[in-house]
TrEMBL record, chains A, B:
Residues 1-24 form the signal peptide. May function as somatic storage protein during early seedling development. Belongs to the APS1/VSP family. SUPFAM superfamilies: HAD-like (SSF56784). One of its GO terms (molecular function) is acid phosphatase activity. The lineage of its organism: Eukaryota, Viridiplantae, Streptophyta, Embryophyta, Tracheophyta. PANTHER family: ACID PHOSPHATASE-LIKE PROTEIN, VEGETATIVE STORAGE PROTEIN 1-RELATED. InterPro entries: Acid_phosphat_B-like (IPR005519), Acid_phosphatase_pln (IPR010028), APS1/VSP (IPR014403), HAD-like_sf (IPR036412), HAD_sf (IPR023214). It comes from Clitoria ternatea. It holds the Pfam family Acid_phosphat_B. This is Acid phosphatase.
Length: 264, 264
């Protein structure tokens, strides 16, 4: 029985990855969203009578911040969203805007124009992990997540991969900037290459000296270093507000959807 | 026939205002959102196969910026949104977050803690105007809008009014900061008072010296003056990203929904 669990998990992961891959190439199915009625909660954190759609949009618009978990009542809604067409459509929209912006730029093509890409839920998807952990209703389990990452099987987010390749063709260089720690660098690089992110100017992982500091602090510091080295951050894309806030954020920022977790 | 038009408009406006007022007090009806399929557009501005929901969320999340009109295909969707329960639920969520934040603060109650409120689509609703102008699909008609404003009959957004009163009860002072020009000050003050905004520390309208400058520039400058006078901007709420970006934005900002127009 114990030996079966990893196998079952792996098969489930493969199925999910297929689902993501198929949805990625599928355009066209209308997605009806039925907002769930949120029950009255205690402690003031849950808001009576507000749909999960309101919650999701609140997260995307930086109105709901510093949250630890998806509201219990929204597990089904968020699961449906993450596995369905709306997530694909929303991601496609963001990436299309990013590309429309990038192609209007007058680029010098001197190799110094860079686009900063976050990794988790931006370049790669951890949905296979989160599908087994209540789509964000469970408090973050670092130990468990750090068993998933080294498998190196996170799929590419299809719209992000498409954007990545389009930016490269415009002569823009890619810098991956991630909160993943230094010791996960090698497996992350392997995972990225395996799913199609074949080249980058830099892959910046988090040095232990940043432990205890916020993501905004870390990412701002690293972007500042890049600019001091002479790079021009013409675009910056991430799934967390902490990827695109702070200093040296870049000429324009784009936020991919992420109603599953929040990093401050 | 010509004399009938203002009367018909007025009656339609009254009906719309009733609709807003009734929705404001109504909690509970599930609102099904059916994203429209956007047709392939020319010129690169419209994005094939992306639902109007993706568009709306893109606007709220600052991914879609500098837009002049709502995409033609989304007129019905935006109209439904603005007249329906989702807009009310989304607004309620934002205002609930704002109040949850405000009541955690340790306030000195020295009269210097202020909350900056935008006016259009934040304190007051111009929905009766926009319902007659395609819910934002028509290019902005300043002349026509400036016939509507002096009527002084814009209704209060119910969730904003509720938040306003709750903030006052916490000892927070209100500063209205609006892009409406100085010559509309008197009618704006009258409109605000008529619908329940009974008091304020300041009502700041736009001085002619700001003509040609962006909204971000104007509002940042005015907020800076407030802070130089010793006020502490503990919160800032508006429907436009330009209300909450720039400098001296306040300790925390909140964005109310507005998929109808964009001010940069």
């Amino acid at each position: 029985m114990r030996r079966m669990k990893p196998l079952v998990n792996f098969v489930a992961t493969l199925i999910l990855m297929l689902a993501i891959a198929c949805h990625g190439s599928e355009h066209g199915v209308n997605f009806n969203i039925f907002p769930l009625r949120m029950k009255t909660g205690s402690g003031g954190h849950y808001i009576p009578d507000v749909s999960c759609l309101s919650w999701r949009v609140g997260v995307e618009a930086h109105n709901i911040i510093d949250w630890k978990t998806v509201p219990q009542e929204c597990e089904g809604y968020i699961g449906n969203y993450m596995l369905g067409d709306q997530y694909r459509a929303d991601s496609k929209m963001v990436c299309a805007q990013a590309y429309l912006y990038a192609k209007t730029l007058n680029l010098t093509r001197d190799g110094r124009d860079i686009w900063v890409f976050d990794i988790d839920e931006t370049a790669l998807s951890n949905l296979p992990y989160y599908a087994h952990h209540g789509f964000g209703v469970e408090p973050f389990d670092r130990e468990s997540f750090n068993e998933w990452v080294p498998l190196g099987i996170a799929p590419a987010l299809p719209e992000s991969l498409k954007l990545y390749n389009k930016l490269l063709s415009l002569g823009i260089k890619i810098v991956f900037l991630t909160g993943r720690p230094d010791h996960q660098r090698e497996i992350t690089a392997k995972n990225l290459k395996n799913v199609g992110y074949h080249t980058w100017k830099k892959l910046i992982t988090k040095d232990p000296s940043y432990v205890g500091k916020t993501a905004v602090t870390y990412e701002s510091a690293e972007r500042k270093k890049l600019e001091e080295k002479g790079y021009r951050i013409i675009g910056n894309i991430g799934d967390q507000w902490s990827d695109i806030l702070g200093t040296n954020t870049g000429n324009r920022t784009f936020k991919l959807p992420d109603p599953v977790y929040y990093i401050s």
